[in-house]
Design goal:
Helix content is 2%, strand content 55%. With 645 residues, the protein is mainly β. The strands form 6 sheets. It has a 22-stranded antiparallel β-barrel. The chain has a 3-stranded antiparallel β-sheet with strand order 2-1-5, with no helix packed on it. The protein has a two-stranded antiparallel sheet with strand order 3-4. Pfam families: Porin_10.
């Protein structure tokens, strides 16, 4: 979301976000509709704005993200990876789902809601034709049983046919959820089921079909995208990930009298101590099926050595329990901060193929952590939190994570100024699939991988009225773990430093607006960790209201651009991004992507129309990932309705 619509809520600037989560009830927020997320460890509530803003609505379904930070394979729903290092997350325990992070919803990202009336949102995106187009349908429904209890469902289906051959995607994400926010007892329950099906083409056989099309067609008519040859046919990647997440707490406290808005005395429950339990069960499996492989694409064959085909599979399951006791802030004038102690246990099981393709190798890992959190979330001026956990048993021994953040908010000449500081220190073992994986073309057992040691410091400064936001950060990594040019995990035993600065500055003159974002980053080892020096986003548009000021209109054009660099390539058999082979490496970048759009907002309805990649054919290196071209010029549209009945 853009700075203009979320600046009040970014990083806790809105005071409502800092009230004690145990005191949240439907009377404290707009009774019509409010939304929140819960953190996966302790279930603390974070209020968020309802998704009703129309600014940037035209970019919400782009795989590259709202401001174009992600590299991807071109088609809707294809794997992606952020070019901005500080936006990347560590590899998850089931890392095959990581490239779909823009579509897969983690428990801490899911939006719970409470509304005085039943709330429904229907959203539909479409582009292209029935042969090469993309479609996405989203439905969200929530209804209250009473002011404390709500439940609902979420459906998200997308289908991308693909402009290039053997490129289609079909993803489904469905959720059931419920919440209860009582004074003594609170609970959140979430069930999520996620399926991905992706046809893999390995990229086009020769980049000159895009960079020099006349040479490839011998001066004749250019090739249509569907006629450009690709490396693979009859190859698929499928993932299925489902989880059940429950977080609940019981509050002990006392009653005290207070005056309501009518100056009448009433009793108020004041929580003092919370007993918290959170549990998550997750089950996932992956299948890679290829009936016709390019014999020169993969270097090794470990199982099916007599044919150019693969049938790989693996599965993963885990259950994690966290128990905590929290002494809450705010129950008297001396309790200026909250203190929480917790202990967690997670057991994970993995199944890998054996070389006879029939037997299964089973691996089990246990982790036990103990930790605590000190936080101040109420008040207007200063908020902070510090969380630490250390491994005490089994595979977690020697691992630890420390995280802290602080924000200072004050008024300056009728404006709101915010300073934010964040810091993390961690020493963690690389994810299981970086240490063990068995398949037809890739086979590794790396029990000697060392723990990754990371330190990160970030600062942020924002001025609401100026629409200015500046973020700076620095990170040091020892034992950085990555997929090398052979698509095999490797560690760099030295230190790597990354520095980053992101400036967002918006300007306005009457109905004319110009939004700008400039990202700069530098890596001390561009061979192991390649990053573009600059990434830019600019959005020039007219914004006004017409039809008796009930219809909001935006007409504009935006552009995204990044400087050239040796971007990671994508390898279908591992479903992840890895470094390029130095002997065959190519640079991407130095090519702007320009979109024209119209955005409309009428009461509860948002509509957009967009001409995507309007500058196609202007020459240049139009790739987000080496050998995977950006989609050609295409018309896109979308509509979103909110219903309260």
């Amino acid at each position: 979301m853009n700075n203009r619509n979320t600046s009040d809520n970014r990083n806790g600037q809105n005071n409502e976000e800092h009230q004690d989560s145990t005191k949240v009830n439907s009377a404290s927020i707009d009774p019509k509709l409010y939304m929140w997320t819960v953190d996966e460890r302790l279930g603390n509530i974070q209020l968020i704005p309802a998704d009703t803003a129309f600014h940037h609505f035209q970019n919400q379904n782009l795989v590259e993200g709202v401001t174009g930070h992600k590299n991807h394979l071109g088609n809707l729903g294809s794997p992606s990876m952020s070019r901005i290092y500080f936006e990347r997350s560590d590899f998850s325990q089931y890392l095959f789902i990581d490239p779909y992070s823009s579509f897969f919803v983690k428990p801490q990202e899911f939006k719970f809601s409470n509304s005085r009336l039943p709330y429904t949102n229907l959203t539909y995106f479409k582009s292209g034709s029935s042969v090469d187009g993309e479609e996405r349908f989203k439905s969200y429904f929530s209804v209250n049983v009473n002011k404390r209890m709500a439940f609902g469902f979420n459906i998200d289906y997308q289908y991308g046919r693909g402009f290039y051959s053997n490129q289609s995607t079909a993803h489904f994400n469905g959720s059931l959820f419920g919440s209860y926010l009582g004074s003594h007892y609170q609970a959140h329950l979430l069930y999520n089921n996620f399926f991905t099906k992706m046809v893999e083409n390995g990229g086009i056989t020769d980049d000159r079909y895009i960079t020099n099309p006349l040479a490839m067609s011998e001066g004749k008519k250019k090739y249509e995208p569907v006629n450009i040859p690709t490396l693979f046919t009859d190859t698929w990647n499928r993932n299925h990930d489902s989880y059940i997440f429950l977080t609940h707490r019981y509050n002990l406290g006392f009653n005290r009298e207070k005056e309501n808005e009518k100056k009448q005395k009433e009793k108020e429950f004041v929580p003092v101590t919370s007993f918290i339990h959170t549990v998550k069960y997750e089950s996932a499996r992956r299948k890679y099926l290829s009936l016709s492989e390019n014999k020169d694409f993969y270097e090794n064959i470990y199982i099916n050595k007599n044919a150019l085909s693969s049938k790989d599979s693996t599965s993963y399951s885990s259950i994690k329990n966290t128990f905590a006791i929290a002494l809450l802030e705010g129950f008297n004038k001396y309790a200026q901060a909250g203190l929480t102690g917790f202990i967690s246990h997670e057991i994970r099981q993995y199944k890998l193929m054996d070389k006879d393709s029939v037997s299964v190798n089973k691996y089990t890992e246990n982790e036990v952590y103990a930790g605590g959190e000190l936080s101040r979330k109420s008040g207007k001026l200063l908020h902070y939190s510090a969380t630490g956990e250390v491994g005490i048993l089994k595979e977690s021994i020697g691992q630890f994570r420390l995280k802290g953040n602080m924000d200072l908010n004050f008024r300056f000449k009728k404006d709101t100024v915010t300073f934010i500081a964040r810091g993390t220190i961690s020493n963690t073992l690389p994810a299981f699939y970086l240490r063990h994986y068995h398949s037809n073309h890739f086979w590794w057992d790396n029990d000697d991988l060392s723990k990754e040691f990371k330190t990160r410091m970030e600062g942020e400064f924002s001025v609401k009225r100026w629409e200015t936001n500046l973020k700076v950060g620095v990170e040091n990594i020892k034992n950085y773990t990555y997929f090398n040019s052979k698509a095999v995990p490797e560690q760099y035993n030295g230190n790597i430093q990354i520095i980053s600065a992101v400036l967002s500055q918006n300007f306005k003159a009457g109905i004319l607006h110009l939004d700008n974002e400039v990202s700069y980053q530098k890596t001390s080892n561009s061979t192991v960790l390649p990053l573009p020096d600059f990434s830019l986003y600019h959005n020039l548009y007219l914004e006004t209201k017409i039809s008796k000021k009930v219809l909001s209109v935006q007409l504009g054009a935006d552009v995204r651009y990044f400087t050239k660099y040796m971007a990671p390539v994508y390898t279908p058999a591992i479903g992840n991004f890895n470094l390029q082979d130095a002997a065959k490496s190519v640079e991407i970048g130095g090519y702007p992507i320009v979109n024209l759009y119209a955005n409309l907002h009428l009461k509860r309805t948002r509509i957009f129309a967009m001409l995507y990649h309007v500058n196609q054919g202007s020459g240049g290196n139009s790739f987000y990932v080496p050998h995977y071209p950006i989609n050609p010029r295409i018309f896109k549209l979308g509509i979103s309705w909110n219903f309260y009945d």
